[in-house]
Design goal:
Helix content is 24%, strand content 24%. By secondary structure, it is an alpha+beta fold. It has a four-stranded antiparallel β-sheet, covered by helices on one side. A hairpin with a 7-residue loop joins strand 1 and strand 2.
Length: 251
């Protein structure tokens, strides 16, 4: 059999209004030709979508803006600022009242500790250079000077503060480092001079007492508690001016 023998060729006609073949679903339907005016137009420019989609987990004032042509999927994104930051102060509608500080003191190390610390660091760096010749000469000095500075600042990080919080109504508070004590829980207070400090920290010390002691600070204050919910009998806190601390607590 010859290939293509049973194939019947039929002419293909395009759908035209004159022939009534404009509807592909109804081949035998009739249509009336209606002239349509046309006008040449230039290709349109790309359209930037203005739809915003919030980023996650970015802050509420940032969103992602998609860029692409109209009707297409957004493939790129960039962060845009949509407004001012939302803070807890705006949400609650209240303002945080500042603390009124009556007394503040930081227990820095004595000034003469600084030259001694740098001298010790320089001596150790010199010994390192003698033992390890492969290192640059400045590296041990720079490293040990930074270590000495950080150590001296860390030793003087504790702050003694007497403040008043008008918003909370808690009244006067004594803060020693991270610990704080309201004045309403204080039964009595007294100054511990330098001469009596060894006895207060030695045989007379209660193991349950709260002690914040710095050896380079001479005097201390003794604060006896009157709080049935607190097992701590009293506080012993180092300070350079105990009379000012006690005056701030009792005034």
């Amino acid at each position: 059999m010859v290939p293509g023998l049973l194939t019947i060729e039929s002419p293909t006609r395009e759908a035209k209004p004159e022939r009534g073949w404009t509807s592909p679903t109804i081949p035998n339907g009739m249509a009336t030709a209606t002239p349509v005016r046309t006008r040449a137009r230039r290709p349109g420019a790309s359209v930037t979508s203005s739809a915003l989609k919030r980023s996650t987990p970015a802050s509420p004032s940032w969103a992602r803006l998609g860029i692409g042509s109209a009707g297409s999927r957004r493939t790129t994104a960039r962060l845009v600022d949509t407004g001012p930051q939302t803070t807890l102060d705006r949400v609650s509608g209240t303002r945080v009242a500042p603390h009124v500080v009556r007394y503040r003191e930081r227990l820095w190390v004595p000034w003469w500790w600084w030259p001694l610390g740098f001298a010790l660091a320089a001596l150790i760096a010199f010994e390192v250079n003698l033992g390890v010749s492969a290192l640059p000469g400045w590296l041990p000095f720079a490293t040990l000077f930074a270590v000495a500075t950080g150590t001296l600042l860390w030793l003087g990080r504790v702050e003694i503060r007497v403040s008043v919080d008008p918003a909370s109504g808690a009244g006067v508070e004594l803060r020693a480092g991270q610990a704080h004590l309201p004045v309403t829980a204080i039964a009595r207070s007294a100054e511990v001079p330098r001469s009596a400090k060894s006895a207060a920290l030695g045989r007379q010390l209660d193991p349950a007492a709260f002690v914040l002691h710095r050896a380079w600070v001479g005097p201390m204050i003794l604060v006896v508690l009157d709080d049935p919910d607190d097992p701590t009998p009293y506080w012993l806190v180092s300070c350079r001016h105990p009379d000012r601390v006690l005056a701030a607590l009792t005034s």
